[in-house]
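Good morning N.,

You mentioned wanting to compare the apo and holo forms, so I went ahead and generated the holo version with magnesium ion. This is what I fed in:
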Amino acid sequence: MFSNRSNAELSNSNIVTFSIIIPTYNESENILRLITEIEKNLPTSDLTEIIIVDDNSPDGTGNLVENYINQQNHANQKVSRTRTRNCMVKVVHRTVKNGLIPAIMDGVKQSSGRNVIIMDADFSHPPEVIPKMMQELKMNPNSIIIGSRYVEGGKVIGWPKKRKILSTGASFLARFGLSVKRVKDPMSGLFALPREFIENISIDTKGYKILLEILVKNKEIPTKEIPYTFTDRRSGKSKMDKGVILNYAEAIWQLYRHGQKSGQVTINEKLNERSVLFLSKVGRYYTVGISGLIINYIISFLLANDVANSIRLLSNVWYLEASIIGAAISATSNFFFNKYWTFEDRQFEVGSTARQYISFIGMSAIGLIIQIAILYFMVENFVPYRISLIVAIAVATTINFILNKKFTFKEKVWA
Ligand SMILES: Nc1nc2c(ncn2[C@@H]2O[C@H](COP(=O)(O)OP(=O)(O)OP(=O)(O)O)[C@@H](O)[C@H]2O)c(=O)[nH]1
Ligand SMILES: [Mg+2]
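and this is what came out, ligand included:
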């Protein structure tokens, strides 16, 4: 699928080896400093171009770069450029702001490097790591080199706890939900790869994590993660809002569907059967979950003090105790229904059933923590409570299902 040209043969000529693509929107406080920092750090052995892709920023980011280039007296119609030593700077002016991925793809179209590096303009991605990534890509020419916050040596500075958890949760969901386990930081915005890897990809999500899309659609490409310290932006305004979270959820769903569709075509027809079986099990799991809610509600209702006082149904238990008993009984009934019906496990030997039961309860606890975490972050980011609750329950139940499938009932996830 991809050719095997070596970088060494290109590095000593006039051919651009690396195109560093930086999308910008209102980055006037950062952009010129960033360009100079990158230039300072670049090795002299390779001809590099820096391409700023600006979406007509109201704060004049695009014009700043344009003036910087003009100062060097090398203007050139639509795409302007300047060359200092081993580095050229270009700016691509787009007329409207329509998202990060389209901006990156426009930058790629305008680039001429054999390799492409994508990075943010807000100094979250340190310019000092760029030469290391170049070096790695030259040593592994047909790979994706990922700037990683989550491998040993990498870290995140300056994010509030809620953003850290949101990012970790999103990475977890991507890694396990979309089978990109091999990469610890698939949501990274900093990565380097041969240009043809990104040119050849058809992007169909509205999300803003282009690396994730590349990884999901090209599972065979080798990857290497380079640790770096991500620092939260110090200047300029964040573009992260609740729309980003919803776009992310949509992108995950689209990529998941992509995985299913391509799997059906390229692997074999059996996979289709398997995904039907997988979905039918998800359906059963949700049905059992609803039955558990009903059982929980009825038991808590019947045992509670208020009801007992008025209709003297069963006993006279404090309402919180009633609720705990309701939850415990429904967790138990969920376990047995799921064992027997969802996962069709008809072995009831005491020791192994008890082990499964403990594991099931443990996974439920994990599900609960995930649910609370998602709920907290969505509500804290001003998503309405009702929507947050539905998303939190849906995501937590699905993760819970996958965990139980794999660890409690020892089935393969996609079977
Ligand atoms: N051209 C273009 N660039 C964008 C757009 N949205 C964001 N960017 C740029 O993409 C990079 C990443 O965006 P950020 O706002 O830093 O997103 P983030 O890192 O998830 O969040 P913060 O660092 O909190 O702002 C920055 O260089 C932005 O200027 C867009 O719609 N068009
Ligand atoms: Mg940023």
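The pocket of guanosine-5'-triphosphate (ligand 1) is lined by residues 23-25, 27, 53-55, 97, 99-100, 103, 120-122, 124, 233, 238-240 (CB under 6 Å).

Happy to go through it together on a call whenever suits you.

Best,
F.
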